[in-house]
Amino acid sequence: MLFADNEILKSTREAVNSAVKAGRLPCSILLSGASAALREKCAYELAAAVLCTENKNSAPCMKCSACLRALSGVHPDIMKMVPEDGKKLLSVKSVRENCLSRLYTAPAEGDNKVFIFPSCDDMSTVIQNALLKSIEEPPEDTLFILCADARESLLTTVISRLTEYPLGDPLSSKSRKSDEEVISCAEKLALAMANEDEFSLMIAAGAMHKNRKMMSAVASRLILIIRDAMTEGSRAEHLSGCEMASYALSRSFRTSSLLQIKEIMDKIISEAASNANENLLISRFSSEIAVIMKDRI
């Protein structure tokens, strides 16, 4: 059985083993939560699942030469993407030379090749954008495995192209703190809008300064708050976890204004992913929202 460690969530263990046995393992995977060592161990187990020579298209035998070398990380068809000697961070050059340029080359030994990114928490936006197309539509013989302490470490556009397998309770990792910061910031922004408080709006927006990942996450959370505001009074389930903020928005803005705010959030997410300047995004966000705040009910 894969992912047998007790620390790993039962739901994740069942999902992974079911996918492997059915021959439906996703081609681009995110392993999140737990420790870095456990994430890497699980990455090698997934690699064994596609490199095993005894039980092809099913659960790996964990005994053949291919499995044993995969589990040890020394299989020739496993490419571990780590910083070059003497460097702390993975470089664009290294990714292009050791990953992107090898996508369409034949595996060295088996039927598949595996690219493992063991530490994506500090991966630059340039590298993430360079990987977008590849992780969305990799060659049939290629498996991407990205590992991160928390999914917020990655761009929204990257996350949307990955199948996430959380190894540990996300509330036990730093993602809990990230989630709380995102929710708090989004809630403060929504309440500032509802109260037509431009100063509070600027203060809340300042939390996103020089943090593109948080900017996208906050914008996504605000979209959920707006959705809740638009369905306020119906029996629709709240999705944002910010009932007070969504209620305040519903009492302060017309549906047309809420849709305008959503459009601004969509632009923030899109432009943050394309490397737009954070200061300009925040400045424009504040000015455009200030205009809409004047169109209150």
How is this structure best described in words?
By secondary structure, the chain is α/β, with parallel strands linked by helices. Helices cover 51% and strands 8% of the residues. It contains 12 helices and 5 strands. A 5-stranded parallel sheet has the order 2-3-4-1-5, with helices on one face. Helix 7 (175-194) runs parallel beside helix 10 (243-252) and helix 9 (212-230) runs antiparallel to helix 11.
The strands making up the biggest β-sheet line up spatially as 2-3-4-1-5
Q: Count of helical segments?
A: 12
Poorly predicted tracts of residues:
none
Q: In what range is the share of β-strand residues? A: 5-15%
Question: How many whole angstroms does the radius of gyration measure?
Answer: 22 Å
Spatial separation of the terminal alpha carbons:
59 Å
Give the biggest beta sheet.
Answer: 5 strands, parallel
Mean pLDDT: 87
Helix content: 40-55%
**Secondary-structure content class:** alpha/beta
The best one-word shape is elongated
The tally of strands reads 5
Summarize the structure.
By secondary structure, the protein is an alpha/beta fold.
